[in-house]
Design brief:
The structure holds 3 protein chains of 3 kinds. Chain A is α/β, with parallel strands linked by helices. Chain A contains 5 helices and 7 strands; from the N terminus they run αβββαβαβαββα. Chain A has a 7-stranded mixed β-sheet with strand order 2-1-5-4-3-6-7, covered by helices on one side. In chain A, β1 and β2 form a beta hairpin. By secondary structure, chain B is an all-beta fold. In chain B, the strands form 2 sheets. Chain B has a 16-stranded antiparallel β-barrel with strand order 1-2-3-4-5-6-7-8-9-12-13-14-15-16-17-18. In chain B, strands 10-11 form a two-stranded antiparallel sheet. Classes of the chains: A alpha/beta, B mainly beta, C mainly alpha.
Chain lengths: 162, 383, 80
Amino acid sequence: MRNRIAVMAAILAFALPAWAAPADVQAPAFSLQSVDGHTVSLAQFKGQVVMINFWASWCGPCRQEMPLLDSIYKQYKDMGFTLLGVNVEPDAHGANAWLQKTPVSYPILYDPKSQVSQLYQVQAMPTTVIIDRQGVVRFVHNGYVPGDENQYMNSIRSLIVQ
Amino acid sequence: MAALCLAALPAVAGVLPEDRVDVLYHRYQGGGITVQGPSILVQKRIGDHFAVNANYYQDMISSASIDVLLSASPYKETRTQKSVGAQYLHGKTTYSAGFINSVEPDYKANTSYYSVSQDMFGDLTTVTLSYSRGWDQIYRDIKVNGVIVNDPTFHQRADHRVYGLSLSQILTRNLIGTLNYQFSSDQGYLASPYREIRFVDPNNPVGYTLAPQIYPNTRTMEAISGSLKYYLPYRAALTGKYRFFTDSWGIAAHTLQLDYVQPLRHHWTFDGNVRYYRQGAASFFSDLFPYANYSNYMARDRELAAFHSITLGVEATYAFSIPRLTWIQRSTATLSFDRMMVHYLDYRDALYSKFDPGVIKAGDEPLYTLDASIYQAFVSFYF
Amino acid sequence: MRMSCNRLRGLLVATAALVAVSACSPIQPWVKPYEREHLADAIMALDRNPISSTYLDHVFETREGARGATGAVGGGCGCN
């Protein structure tokens, strides 16, 4: 009997959900180097809906998601929307090799010292953050599974019209 | 002879294993035995939450081993093992279950296994609970009119239960550690229908007489192991593992392993490994009992003897792509060779006194040593 | 046997407590998800070729008295 209770307790404990990250705060300001060599800062995009995607070339789901992010960028960029891909690797080598094979049209920024990753309390790879026109973080998504791009588009559509 | 071997649980940590097909040829040669055969493993995701796996494995055995030559005759047989398994991923939890069926002319084994795996503390820790249950049917082969059939008077059963708890912990950016605990319980017929013990018998020209072995019908075992895997800055990995095993038969065993992986350029990966194993004998084991009916339990199986072994292994993998088949993301071909050298400390080569009676006294035969070569060749396709 | 059963039950309850605590834990991961580049490398996988490691485990198990506690799952990129 005691054995059964112990087993049940173990299995039920596994079913507990994990704590999720909060949103609805002012998006922290930052400024990073882009792949083209320019300095890009978040303040430049005030008044636009900004989506920040934290990614790395060693992260399978990140690589899987990027072509879909590229089509989202192309679809909404003329409606006051921009997408920034923040690469978290300390060495640009991996990112550059991947971008040569699979180029994207949205800006890619390097965060080699993890300053922006820490600012945004990145808790998973990839992490997608959507900021509204007033600069408030409205949507944070950890990870990527096929189908998540629909959630991104729903969020973007509701924020673009504000 | 069958084995309760779990089909490999693919490595998961909040991500289902990647789609993969492996085709392997294996060959073991040593101590008068050759065992070879294929193994095919398929792993496939279905949707975002499910993955399935299946394995087909064969051992084609040709045996003229020391045990066979002592009291039987060389034989050939095939063991076929099939397994299927599934995994379900829900958030940070992975549930797995599977079934293994192993069939050979004198041994049928069925095993079911279940496990739950949970990622926690920012995916740095993975805890896994597992349980498996095995049901074995044991027969004995005899020759009737030159044909090998099951002895109709011999049909035994054995049950196995295995409980496992394991923990993997990311310690630093470059270091991962694991801890494993396993408790198993066997019940039923745990001996071999073909092996015998020997006791001193001055009336016999060889100096001993063979007699049936008597095994306990229960066995409980515990094993605890730990490992550390370290990433070296020039891109290589070093692994150290230690396992301690103890059971109710009085066996205590230590296993120590070191593994070094070195990738080279874009295509090659090399692996070198060393394994040291040391085992103390079971309490009812003896190579030569002093007289008949010496104790309640008696065995002379060398698997229960005191021995130590060193295994040295090397492996080379070549990564390639097949341009015309774009649905295959990448492919690898691997060759591996292991040399296992076993020195028995209390098990003697009784063939010396069998074939040279009177020249070498029973009990003075040289201690048995066994050298074996293990070959593996496999190709892997990733989708 | 009795001691092992108690030990097993104790470990089971400890595991349940560990899993329950982790769901609302103040411990922050000291290796951030964006710092897992080396751990995500294929050479750091705990079991790179399961078809080969299960075969070798079987070779040793059939010839030795010891068995079990051969592997764990975990590590990797920690993505998703």
